[in-house]
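A reminder from the course coordinator: this example appears on the midterm review sheet, so study it carefully.

Given structure:
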């Protein structure tokens, strides 16, 4: 059970919400804050004060006064008119996390909604009613207006949801769970859609997969190094301490841990003096991407617990301020950084693939083929990897450098953060397939070298990965191998692989 307070949601809890049907509950103290801010909104309406979004229109229409008797109609019109997202829906688990993040933001007590709004959001999560939310249509400022409007539709019994494995009308699912749809009152529609929860939910999903891939990259690279009889001197701790980046040093240490006990790696001068950059500079390149991941993680942890709607209510209503916390720029930049960092993992991985398949760059059989000439072996797998890497270069173009004014130029700078988050996830999906190809090639390379010569840690990886993709003894439909390896990498856990090879306290598992 995850307790939502508005302040303490962690990435680990978000991971549980994304990957399981973890239930959530609202903290009682937070509900008290929600009630206090709601009283302030009701006072504003009763006294006819002019406050943006409560007694006025929206965006460029903020100068239009709305009478108290029209506040409910105003909120309903807002949700319906803004629900204009298009394209394929966000993955169901991302939609689920979006609902949780919106509830968590409202629980901070700055938004002026009734407790019933938060409670209904939580019911959706716990009953596994997940809004169908189109991915395209958000500018990432004024909040993720279009995506969150599709989320808000469900609260009023409109729109579509996923429920019990089926896509259906929201009202049908609500009736089955005996959840009454809400009639949104003053400020509530605006509070639901003024926020960055679409880009943040997609960003969290992307980051968690990116972190897993970054860890896997080191084990795969270690296996590749054995397939290429790589030199380990370049991973010596002193080199990396001399530069001073802790992430670079940590990557080098982990690579050496994977390779401890290997009889396939070499020392400088034994076979060659230096390896190519794609081998020798693994700590520098991977380490730099780990630095970027650290930045992204920090920003997501802040944003998951941020108040991102407008206006915000402070001091029990004595201070109501219109600001711009809905602007997605912090997450937009983080997502663009994530895209670039993950694209680099694939860039260098593809170069390692090339070194294994190109007979001019190693002494391995041409294209790792069992019968070069008659059979093509891994030749076109490298093509596939190159294609994915090239696609990533296009997707990694920063979304945040663009801005198109909206709402009659009132909203004249926007973040495009949701586009950045979506692109980051696409890149990560491509990276995993590039890693799958590197893994297949590395398995084949060490198969030729002699699997009995592998390090204990990489031998464990080999034994499990080769069960997914057996050695290439003749040409076959390699698309099947790539997709099977891709699926395995998405699910596999690498816990324990870095324990000392001679440690007997616990069996190392993948």
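Designed residues:
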């Amino acid at each position: 059970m995850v307790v939502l307070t508005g302040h303490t949601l962690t990435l680990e809890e978000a991971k549980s919400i994304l990957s399981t049907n973890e239930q959530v509950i609202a903290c009682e103290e937070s509900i008290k804050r929600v009630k206090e801010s709601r009283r302030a909104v009701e006072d504003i309406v009763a006294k006819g004060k002019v406050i943006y979004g409560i007694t006025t229109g929206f965006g460029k229409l903020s100068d239009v006064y709305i009478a108290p008797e029209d506040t409910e109609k105003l909120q309903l019109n807002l949700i319906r008119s803004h629900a204009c997202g298009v394209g394929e829906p966000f993955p169901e688990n991302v939609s689920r996390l979006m609902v949780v993040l919106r509830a968590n933001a409202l629980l901070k007590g700055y938004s002026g909604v009734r407790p019933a709004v938060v409670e209904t959001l939580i019911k959706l999560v716990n009953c596994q009613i997940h809004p169908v939310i189109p991915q395209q249509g958000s500018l990432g400022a004024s909040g993720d207006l279009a995506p969150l409007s599709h989320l808000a539709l469900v609260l009023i019994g409109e729109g579509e949801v996923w429920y019990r494995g089926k896509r259906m009308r929201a009202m049908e699912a609500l009736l089955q769970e005996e959840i009454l749809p809400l009639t949104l009152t003053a400020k509530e529609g605006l509070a639901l859609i003024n926020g960055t929860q679409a880009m943040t939910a997609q960003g969290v999903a992307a980051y968690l997969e990116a972190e897993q891939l970054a860890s896997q990259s080191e084990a795969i690279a270690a296996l590749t190094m054995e397939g290429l009889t790589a030199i380990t001197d370049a991973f010596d701790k002193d080199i990396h301490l001399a530069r001073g980046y802790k992430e670079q040093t940590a990557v080098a240490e982990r690579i050496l841990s994977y390779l401890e006990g290997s009889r396939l790696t070499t020392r400088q001068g034994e076979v060659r003096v230096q390896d190519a950059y794609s081998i020798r500079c693994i700590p520098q390149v991977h380490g730099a991407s780990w630095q970027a991941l650290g930045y992204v993680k920090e920003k997501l942890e802040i944003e998951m617990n941020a108040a991102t709607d407008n206006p915000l209510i402070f001091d029990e209503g004595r201070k109501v301020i219109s600001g711009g916390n809905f602007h997605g720029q912090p997450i937009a930049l983080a997502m663009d950084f994530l895209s670039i960092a993950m694209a680099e993992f694939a860039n260098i991985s593809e170069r390692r693939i090339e070194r294994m398949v190109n007979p001019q760059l190693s002494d391995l059989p041409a294209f790792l083929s069992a019968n070069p000439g008659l059979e093509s072996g891994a030749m076109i797998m490298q093509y596939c990897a190159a294609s994915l890497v090239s696609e990533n270069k296009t997707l990694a173009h920063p979304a945040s450098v663009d801005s198109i004014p909206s709402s009659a130029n009132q909203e004249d700078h926007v973040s495009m953060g949701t586009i950045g988050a979506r692109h980051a996830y696409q890149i990560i999906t491509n990276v995993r397939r590039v890693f799958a190809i590197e893994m297949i090639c590395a398995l084949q390379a060490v198969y030729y070298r002699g699997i009995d010569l592998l390090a204990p840690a990489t031998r464990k990886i080999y034994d499990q990965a080769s069960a997914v993709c057996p050695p290439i003894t003749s040409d076959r439909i390699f698309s099947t191998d790539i997709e099977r390896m891709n699926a395995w990498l998405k699910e596999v856990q690498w816990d324990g692989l870095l324990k000392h090879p001679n440690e007997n306290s616990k069996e190392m598992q993948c």
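Residues 204-307+334-401+425-491 form a domain with the Fumarase C; Chain A, domain 2 fold (CATH 1.20.200.10). The chain has two domains: 2-195, 204-307+334-401+425-491.
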